Amino acid sequence: MIRTAGRGWLRRSATVPRPAGRLVCFPHAGGSAASYAVFGPLLPPRTELAVVQYPGRGDRFAEPFEDDVRRMAAAVSAELLALEPAPLTLFGHSLGALVAYETALLLQQNDVPLARLAVSASPPPRLAGGGDTHLRDDDELWKIVCGFGGVEPEIAADEDLRGVLLPILRSDVRANELYEPPGDPNALDCPVRCYHGIGDPLIDESQLPEWAEVSTGPFALQRRPGGHFHIYAEPGVLIGDILDAAAPRRAVS
């Protein structure tokens, strides 16, 4: 169970004394800490789950949105630096992949080693950003988002829920579309794993191997069934792969 008491950016599972590892998860656009609730029971023993809670949703509903990826990463990295040290694995899905990458850069600048960076459903930083979806009117934005497959039909038809979700989605889509990669970042030195949902209409699969360029460490690209929201298809298998430390080659599968 994820604790939601208090403010701040991280929602941690029941505290694991002297954790052997910590999996930090970054939600997709429109997502919240609850998006990763299914991950908690699937983690290995002594592995702590820490999920990012973006402002404007969940227990941070009354807070103003944040639509700058680097500011998000700065806030998350500051909280991670304050925690008891443990091997860190960062996993970000869609918008969360960019926030996770920027967080990884900041942690490395502070001499915090990463076990690995895992990213999903996002183009590599150099090719990310751009687009005007966040400028569309409410009806068109809602239609586009529902077309991604992440909104249940009963939610899509609920006018009250739409009114709550649309401002959140618009802010997150803006953050994604206005993202600009670092001009000349230092390469990470951790393994990188990239996940692609087969049939994801939002991602050009041919671009994904470029994620290898963000690090001098080993790289692997995995294809999974489930489209853009493949993370909910056999999540136990996904978690097992994310946390597997063995990544001996820069391979694409």
Automatic annotation (TrEMBL):
It comes from the Bacteria. InterPro entries: AB_hydrolase_fold, TEII, Thioesterase. Residues 22-236 form the Thioesterase domain. SUPFAM superfamilies: alpha/beta-Hydrolases (SSF53474). GO terms for biological process: lipid biosynthetic process. Pfam families: Thioesterase. Belongs to the thioesterase family. This is Surfactin synthase thioesterase subunit. It comes from Kribbella sandramycini.
